[in-house]
Specification:
The protein is α+β, with helices and mostly antiparallel strands. It contains three helices and two strands; from the N terminus they run αααββ.
Amino acid sequence: MPFEKGQSGNPGGRPKVSMEVKELARQHGPAAILKLVEHLEGEDGRLAQTAAIALLDRGYGKPAQTTVLEGSEERPLVMKEARFVSPTTD
């Protein structure tokens, strides 16, 4: 069912997270980062790797991913290449 011109498919938009909840979460941000660093320096390699990824994702953003698809009318689309690229830094 198509939408009329100028009509949104989601008129209410994305649900808003309560500012109170965001503020409570942000109050624990420094402690959460310290806990990640603690795990990063720990002996469990898998936990250290997870902590490293979490810290890098929050500090630099998640890496952009691109996907290249090829296809024609005779053949369906198939994944040709998936590539990870470095995030841009400001």
